[in-house]
Write a structure and sequence with these properties.
- The protein contains 3 helices and 6 strands, in the order E-E-H-H-E-E-E-H-E.
- The protein is of the alpha+beta class.
- It has a single domain, classed as AF2212/PG0164-like (Elongation Factor Tu (Ef-tu), domain 3), CATH 2.40.30.100.
- Strands 1-2-5-4-3-6 form a 6-stranded antiparallel barrel.
- Strand 3 and strand 4 form a beta hairpin.
């Protein structure tokens, strides 16, 4: 399954800073409905994420009933993405994800 959406980038400041974008509610609904066939440990879902011309493999992380898209540093650097930016995210989950 594949979607495209716009989301705001936010930072979680833990021992190391992590950057995320939240999936919209309609995507969360689909992911919850198909969790058994998509997820592995702790409810994480393997995914391919593209912002601009950069595509990476990652895993969606569940948080408070929604899913977060981790934005790897390689993606953020190559696309100039930072905290508070609004980005267009192309998200792919399912069997087509390597």
């Amino acid at each position: 399954m594949e979607w495209e959406f716009v989301a705001e980038v936010f930072q979680w400041r833990g021992p190391a800073p992590y950057f995320f974008a939240a999936t919209p509610a309609h995507i969360d609904d689909f992911l919850h409905a198909h969790l058994g066939e998509l997820a592995y440990g702790w409810g994480c879902i393997p995914a391919r994420v593209r912002i601009g011309n950069t595509e990476v493999t990652t895993s969606l992380m569940p948080k408070d009933g929604a899913y977060l898209v981790p934005l790897k540093i390689a993606l953020r650097r190559s696309e100039g993405v930072d905290d508070g930016d609004r980005v267009r995210v192309r998200l792919r989950v399912g069997r087509a994800v390597p």
